[in-house]
Design goal:
The complex is a heterodimer. Chain A is an alpha/beta fold. Chain A has 14 helices and five strands. The longest helix of chain A has 31 residues. By secondary structure, chain B is α/β, with parallel strands linked by helices. A four-stranded mixed sheet of chain B has the order 2-1-3-4, with helices on both faces. In chain B, strand 1, helix 3 and strand 2 form a beta-alpha-beta unit. Chain B contains 14 helices and five strands. Classes of the chains: A alpha/beta, B alpha/beta. The interface between A and B is large, with 100 and 100 residues.
């Protein structure tokens, strides 16, 4: 046991001495949380609007004023022909053009919206907002809309669980795999292996500091989301931590697996950063909804562990459901962890024999 | 002509590494074939549960209209609001529509019955777009299922991306991401890798100048970048039938400037780092920030002003803006001159920095 403890201390020293990596490891969650919490939004705001009209009569002026008064649109120019407006759109000087017909004043109709549809979702929202502002008739029976769990529509609610899923995977899988492969590459692994400590113990001792680090980062994220971003922790904190620990264990075994496959740091880094991280980010439903993907990709995403973790976290943290509602996902996560751990350990033993 | 031999050395190193050629060729192909299907923020297949407290012909009609809409999937009737909420909690439904008791009576009398739409807004975009679609359906034609309200709104003319396809929006951005990954991460690992294996000492004792050494490190990645871009353009034409609307030369010009920026950034980080792990993490940090703040996924104009201010020095933002203008909107050089010059300025500063930060003596 004392040997084990001294190995853990050795690893911890390795980590602590690399100040820059430490700074990044703890800085990254903070910066990402701030970016996602405040900067990354899909709100309709400051849409640059061009007015196209041949004569600015009273009726047109009123409609334009209504647009300008709303917080969504800013009027950047007034031109006389649709052609000029199209040029402005093409040159990226405007996003939306409102074309008033000649007889707008008399008929109160004949308005056309020209919109830059490069970004389809935003274009749809812009036109919907503009239409609702322009239509003078008070629309009959507007339904009551109630946005559950996230009434202020903050994107942070969606992203905080996703950041947790990504960062924990990055730190555990990449850091452990690299730290093991580095010892191989430099030849110091041989030295460790001839010491009286059992090989398995060496590996576990390597994982322990990273487990602690991941746990610390988890706490930082949770505290930040509750205080700075005002994302509520609706569910029980205990269960959130338990499920996160399972996920951390899963990521560690993944790192172990990578380290037994990769022979050089370069390969280990690229495998964990490009081959592992990118698909997980893209296919786990973090940024893009899984339901909109083609069937084949949905199947692939079914074997991505972060998918289940992020789902569980969204439910536990934001929706505040009990553990029973997320039991299936948690079971899948446990199963994946066991499987990966077994494969990783088996591979690891084989490598030592040969 | 020392530089020629240095470049030859770099290419030999790349080729002899068993892993590098694979990642340079396979990675872009996989990304281009898979990611456009993934990067799809279209809101569809929203599951709607209905709590029908009216159970009349009118409410039935409303339900039929929802079923007929391409955006929604009818999830089923629920007896109470609480039961429907339970469905949302288990993610079997996304939106609950509650039809009040006197829905048909109010409609017939010309009053405005209050329909309740409760949407799961954990994903804000999906929640808001879904509920606005649904409210359009609900309020579109309360009377009889046709006529009236529909024709009131202003007509909409969609420019540039007429089919409103997300692929058109994302493919130019994907090119940027690929350039960033390949021209950024590989150089970041390059010099620090030589440091760790000790081969850099051998370069340090030769009379090769700083400029020649760094340039020889940069040029191979430009060539790789151009190769990758060509693969992307061919694939987007062959697989998706999406072609560049503007002049193709501009796309290459933008790409070479972006490749210059990212390879310089990679080399700078590599110069300052002691281990590959460090270099990778620092690079990753910068890449994530540059990418998220570039307007690639979310419009830059929605950002708060402090975040918007950072886009003035973010080359990724200029690239994304310009390449979408050329590729999707079909703009010429005049439309993107401002972005090209900005990119050029930022990239040359970085390149000079990359040379200056390389030191032969410790």
């Amino acid at each position: 046991m004392r040997q084990f403890v001294s190995f853990v201390i050795k690893e911890t020293k390795h980590i602590l001495r690399d100040r820059r990596t430490m700074l990044i490891l703890f800085g990254l969650p903070v910066v990402l949380m701030l970016l996602f919490g405040f900067a990354i939004t899909n709100d309709v705001k400051d849409v640059r609007t061009v007015i196209v009209t041949s004569q600015m009569d009273h009726q047109t002026r009123q409609a334009v004023d209504r647009l300008a008064a709303s917080e969504y649109f800013i009027i950047t120019a007034t031109v006389s022909s649709p052609g000029e407006a199209e040029l402005l759109l093409r040159h990226q000087r405007a996003d939306l053009a409102v074309v008033f017909g000649k007889d707008f004043a008399s008929k109160k109709s004949g308005v056309q919206l020209m919109v830059d549809t490069s970004d389809p979702n935003m274009a749809q929202q812009w036109t919907a907002y503009a239409q609702s502002i322009l239509s003078t008739q008070n629309t009959p029976s507007t339904p009551n809309i109630k946005l559950l769990y996230n009434p202020r529509m903050k994107s942070a609610y969606n992203f905080v669980p996703a950041i947790m899923g990504m960062l924990l995977l990055l730190i555990c899988a990449m850091m452990t795999s690299v730290s093991i492969v580095r010892e191989k590459e430099r030849g110091t692994m041989e030295v460790l292996l001839v010491s009286p400590v059992r090989p398995l113990m060496i590996i576990i001792a390597k994982a322990v500091p990273y487990l602690l680090q991941a746990f610390l980062i988890l706490i930082i994220i949770l505290v930040m989301s509750a205080t700075v971003l005002e994302v509520p922790l609706a569910g029980s904190v205990g269960w959130i931590i338990v499920v996160s620990l399972i996920y951390i264990l899963l990521a560690l075994s993944l790192g172990l697996l990578i380290s037994s496959v990769a022979q050089t740091q370069f390969v280990a880094l690229l495998v964990s950063a490009m081959v592992l991280l990118l698909p997980t980010v893209m296919l786990s439903g973090m940024l893009f909804p899984i339901e909109s993907m083609p069937q084949v990709l949905q199947w692939i995403s079914a074997v991505m562990p972060p998918r289940y973790y992020i789902q569980v976290m969204r439910k536990l943290m934001i929706m505040g459901v009990g553990i029973r509602e997320v039991l299936p996902e948690v079971c899948i996560l446990c199963g994946m962890t066991l499987l990966l751990l077994m494969v990783a350990l088996k591979k690891f033993n084989k490598r030592l024999d040969s | 002509m020392i530089i020629r031999y240095l470049i030859q050395k770099e290419f030999l190193q790349i080729r002899r590494n068993s892993f590098m050629p694979k990642i340079i060729f396979i990675f872009p192909i996989v990304i281009m074939c898979v990611m456009p299907w993934v990067m799809n923020q279209e809101v569809k297949n929203i599951v709607v549960d209905v709590v029908d407290n009216d159970r009349s012909v009118y409410s039935q009609r409303l339900v039929h209209r929802i079923e007929a809409s391409p955006y929604f999937i009818f999830g089923g009737q629920q007896p109470t609001y609480a039961a429907a909420l339970k469905e949302i909690e288990q993610s079997r439904a996304d939106i609950v529509l509650v039809i009040p008791q006197d829905y048909s009576r109010d409609l017939v009398r010309g009053r405005h019955p209050q329909v309740l739409i409760a949407a799961n807004a954990v994903n804000g975009t999906k929640g808001s777009i879904g509920s606005s679609y649904l409210s359009q359906i609900v309020s579109a034609s309360p009377q009889s299922g046709d006529s009236r309200g529909v024709s009131q709104g202003a007509g909409v003319l969609n420019l540039y991306n007429k089919s409103q396809s997300y692929k058109v929006f994302m493919i130019p951005a994907l090119m940027g991401i690929l350039m960033m990954m390949l021209c950024g991460f590989l150089p970041a690992l390059n010099i620090v890798g030589e440091k760790e294996t000790g081969t850099i000492e051998q370069i340090n004792v030769t009379p090769v100048s700083k400029w020649a050494f760094i340039l020889a490190k940069l040029i191979p990645y430009w060539i790789i970048g151009m190769l990758v871009l060509t693969v992307c353009l061919v694939l987007s034409w062959a697989v998706y039938g999406i072609t560049c609307q503007g002049p193709l030369g501009l796309v290459y010009l933008l790409a070479i400037l972006l490749a210059l920026f990212f390879s310089s950034l990679g080399l700078i980080i590599s110069n300052y780092s002691d281990t590959m792990q460090q270099a990778m993490l620092v690079m990753w940090f910068f890449v994530v920030c540059l990418m998220l703040l570039s307007g690639l996924f979310t419009p830059t104009r929605s950002m708060p002003s402090w975040a918007y201010a950072t886009t003035y020095i973010n080359p990724m933002h200029y690239f994304i803006d310009a390449i979408r203008t050329v590729f999707v909107r079909g703009g010429g050089f005049g439309t993107i001159a401002h972005q090209v010059f900005a990119l050029m300025g930022i990239s040359s500063v970085m390149a000079v920095w990359a040379v200056l930060s390389y030191r032969k003596n410790h």
